[in-house]
Design a protein that fits this description.
With 291 residues, the chain is an alpha/beta fold. It is built from seven helices and 14 strands.
Length: 291
């Protein structure tokens, strides 16, 4: 199929974390990919639940789809990935950016992980680099390395659709923060320019939505043309210097995401929990004064 193929995209909104997971289907067949799945987690009780992932799985089964990929746009800091659970239920290979090794090294130190924690990305089935391609049935997907929010951020371009993770939000909400370890506002600006160089009609599917002031409904689909014209942080030709100054000032006002501590420990392991301790229980660490 050509680069102008139009995949069928179904979004699943998780209100607890404002995350959108996507099922991306080959319109000419039954093959699909799942992008940025969510494992529900109640921090107060330390309990996980699978109802968000189960909704995605139910859709896959109801439509009779074959899951070829479970894709992560990056190591999320605001929700836990359900990739291993989905893989167990419906199959698919788990993919993420090759710079996961940088993230694993950084947060392996922050969480004082032992030598048994592999920092080579081997927990994932495929590590993608800039320019790599993959297939979803008859669809061809292409990989853009779009760091800035994190070092391992990717944008997956499948036909006329681009899945940008946290790099860009809806035009009325702006862009991602860059103050996590390894983040860079200058890198983010350059990454966004790469996305905005795609054809104007390219559909952009964002990783989160928070309902910008004055908007009543959640939204997660826009276009390159709309982002270039109207994005409140980077649209209308804003310069790199203006963007970096704005982004860094804004980031200084932001608190840490509510689920950053459990999310990073799980997501850098491809969605697996840390290994159980001697009593058979899995524990998540809280590093004091480290983040």
């Amino acid at each position: 199929m050509t680069a102008r193929a139009r995949p069928e995209v179904t979004g699943f909104f998780d209100e607890a974390t404002n995350t959108i997971s996507y099922v991306v289907k080959d319109p000419a067949g039954t093959a699909c990919a799942i992008v940025d799945s969510v494992l529900d987690f109640d921090y107060a009780s330390g309990r996980t639940d699978t109802h968000s992932a189960d909704a995605v799985i139910a859709h896959v089964k109801a439509v009779g789809l074959t899951v070829e990929w479970i894709l992560e746009t990056h190591v999320h800091a605001d929700h836990l990935s359900a990739a291993p659970y989905i893989q167990e239920q419906v199959g698919g290979k788990i993919g993420i950016g090759a710079n996961i090794t940088v993230v694993q090294d950084t947060f392996g130190k922050i969480f004082n992980e032992g030598t048994e924690f592999q920092r080579d990305g081997s927990q994932f089935d495929r590590l993608f680099r800039e320019g790599d391609s993959f297939r979803i049935g008859g669809l061809e997907g292409h990989v853009l390395h779009t760091p800035g929010h994190t070092p391992a951020c990717l944008t997956y371009v499948v036909g006329d659709a681009a899945f940008v993770g946290d790099t860009l939000f809806m035009p009325d909400f702006g862009t991602a923060r860059c103050d996590f370890p390894g983040g860079s506002a200058e890198m983010l600006y350059n990454s966004i320019q790469k996305i905005l160089s795609l054809p104007d009609a390219t559909r952009i599917f964002v990783g989160h939505d928070y309902k910008a002031p004055g908007r009543d409904d959640y939204a997660w689909e826009t276009t390159v043309a709309e982002e270039k014209a109207r994005n409140v942080h980077i649209g209308a030709g804003r310069s790199a210097e203006e963007f970096v100054a704005m982004r860094e000032a804004r980031d200084r006002t932001l608190g840490m995401p509510r689920l950053i501590v459990p999310s990073l420990q799980v997501n850098m392991r491809a969605g697996q929990m840390p290994p159980p301790e001697e009593d058979g229980t899995t524990y998540l660490k809280v590093p004091v004064n480290k983040l």
